[in-house]
Amino acid sequence: xxxxxxxxxxxxxxxxxxxxxxxxxxxxxxxxxxxxxxxxxxxxxxxxxxxxxxxxxxxxxxxxxxxxxxxxxxxxxxxxxxxxxxxxxxxxxxxxxxxxxxxxxxxxxxxxxxxxxxxxxxxxxxxxxxxxxxxxxxxxxxxxxxxxxxxxxxxxxxxxxxxxxxxxxxxxxxxxxxxxxxxxxxxxxxxxxxxxxxxxxxxxxxxxxxxxxxxx
Amino acid sequence: xxxxxxxxxxxxxxxxxxxxxxxxxxxxxxxxxxxxxxxxxxxxxxxxxxxxxxxxxxxxxxxxxxxxxxxxxxxxxxxxxxxxxxxxxxxxxxxxxxxxxxxxxxxxxxxxxxxxxxxxxxxxxxxxxxxxxxxxxxxxxxxxxxxxxxxxxxxxxxxxxxxxxxxxxxxxxxxxxxxxxxxxxxxxxxxxxxxxxxxxxxxxxxxxxxxxxxxx
Amino acid sequence: xxxxxxxxxxxxxxxxxxxxxxxxxxxxxxxxxxxxxxxxxxxxxxxxxxxxxxxxxxxxxxxxxxxxxxxxxxxxxxxxxxxxxxxxxxxxxxxxxxxxxxxxxxxxxxxxxxxxxxxxxxxxxxxxxxxxxxxxxxxxxxxxxxxxxxxxxxxxxxxxxxxxxxxxxxxxxxxxxxxxxxxxxxxxxxxxxxxxxxxxxxxxxxxxxxxxxxxx
Amino acid sequence: xxxxxxxxxxxxxxxxxxxxxxxxxxxxxxxxxxxxxxxxxxxxxxxxxxxxxxxxxxxxxxxxxxxxxxxxxxxxxxxxxxxxxxxxxxxxxxxxxxxxxxxxxxxxxxxxxxxxxxxxxxxxxxxxxxxxxxxxxxxxxxxxxxxxxxxxxxxxxxxxxxxxxxxxxxxxxxxxxxxxxxxxxxxxxxxxxxxxxxxxxxxxxxxxxxxxxxxx
DNA sequence: AATGAATGAGTATTCATTCAT
DNA sequence: TATGAATGAATACTCATTCAT
Lengths: 216, 216, 216, 216
Fold this sequence. Notes:
The structure is a homotetramer.
Chain A: H1 4-29, H2 36-43, H3 50-53, H4 57-78, H5 86-103, H6 105-114, H7 123-146, H8 156-175, H9 181-197
Helix pairs in contact in A: 1-2, 1-4, 4-5, 4-7, 5-6, 5-7, 5-9, 7-8, 8-9
Chain B binds a DNA duplex through residues 1-2, 7, 10-11, 35-37, 40, 45-52, 55-57.
């Protein structure tokens, strides 16, 4: 009856309303304490309709995560200063994420805890997101490599994942309550500097990369 | 009244029986599908008695984790070849852990997922274990530093955490189903080599650390 | 979609089946020893469905109470002899209740004990029931007042609550095991006579209200 | 070994310490949320020792009740103005109790709810306390009778229980959350006035008992 | 008398998900 | 597509009380 385009748009709207509702509720009350019925009510749809758009409650978490993190990550790349030292660029990218979580600890925790152990059906979406993120980080590193800031033989892909690993471990330590955010930042900076050093030209010993770092 | 030694010993025995029972059951049926009553029954004690020794089911997981990992980690250090290149030593230490989990995926997953987000009351024990582990890794690195294998100015503590971060991220990626164990090994080796490179002497370019690595 | 009437009727039916099932079980085994699952099973519905109709086990007690007492109270007013002396009318009304409880001590006790201290959410229903009951008692008293049986200035509302207070205290004393039912009846009669006397015309001393009383 | 007197005293001390501890805890956290182990700890004795002095947790409630109410009731009689109108004297006696509960709603509620339905073994103590209380109220009434304030033929015993019934019903209504304390006071005054009127001399119509009452 | 380790019974309630309409 | 009533699985934990020392 309705033109395909309109029907499509209706679906799209409903989908967006659901994600927005879930996000609102997850932030307000946390993931666990939010029920799917609450999400449905907040989205203005029936309890059963929800499962036409998200097969699982976990799905909702993934959807919210992808929405939020996409924005945060996109934004972090848009505000990136390509002329800054590579270390600073990476810190900028990772800080954007931890800063975001700091604003929503209640949501950051389930993200960090659940998303690494998500149901198989939802892994492709997560994988795609992560791959895109990693690729973009690798591109930043690649540019630095081309500028001669790091060794010509350096593996940008490996550097991307390895700096991410440094970030992710500290992020979890922080969200898990083992370290403070300040500690996360200090440790991350040192760890990234170390990681980059492994890919840095050492021809002239004095030429070490300078950046606004804490001197230990 | 009763000789302190005896009562103490009884408690100790019971504690050990509980952890052993929990371990057995967790391995056999997984953590989630094991009920506390099953653990109590397997340990030969009353359902309530269990909670005199573990305030929470999560406690049981932590107890089993500490027991298992302590053994695995202790063993990994005992079988360490102090004369091997540092990279190989570290791979030996981390491989011991992933090899252990490979034998018990059902238990490794909850370990990796839950233990970073454990209840506050159980964090000190986790922290202490991690601190001890990190210290021992740092000592290994420190020895390498004294042998002149890595830079005299290198920070052993930072290297320990940073190599661990590399390991942990891949471990989770593997347990979460994102990468295979083979991939974990390959990536970890490259990442560790990169990390160590940042702390490696570069005076004589040809003197690069040799170890049995995969040439990509 | 479905005709409102049908869906409504279904819900109504289910509600009634639940209350009937609860009543049956409470009488047979007592309130405490009846589990909600038993009630659900007896009503032929799922364990969870029960809580769509009664948010709490306490709710079930209130529902059964309102059902039973409504009947008993309604019946007590229908069988009331409006021509009898006021004291006898009141005794008739209150005796109906204690006689009912005598048939189900197992249920009377939790009624008397719990319903005065019910969760806030259930108080309005209780209040409404009590208000209706008190109003009807007051009407009986009011009629007696208009017949000149009690003082023209008497407050029917106050007399209703005050006679009820006399009844309720003895009811609890009986259900609590402090007095026998016989004692309850004797004491109640005397107490009601006393209460009414306070509102009785004394112009002609000899005109005291006559009713079939126990002479102590 | 120890002289009987000392042993007795020790027991007495322990008993008192237990009741004091229970009272403290019940007031602070409420009856239900207080565990017997907490009471034992607070009293500085072993968990098992407690049950040498109170066979049941309910026992503790009764003990605390008797201690508290004995004091309150004793005090209410000591501060009684024997020259005041009977109505005022009774209000004084009952107000003392509700005023006491107002200071400890958390404790008043279980008192009012549980004590009427206490285990058989504890009923004699309750009965004795109530009997003593009633007797003393009856004595007050009896004195008024002898002063000619109420009818020579009035039954002091019946008046005592009946006024108490009026009080108790309103006390429960208040503690159960059905009426406010102000309402309790207003209703009680009216109800007592009514009850006393039933036993008041009416020879000279104008001679009605005067007391500081609210005129409706 | 005192202890405190051991016991084990006992159950309401939530909520993701389904499916008849 | 949408609905929302119906489902039912699923279990950790508390705590009064006991009893061997």
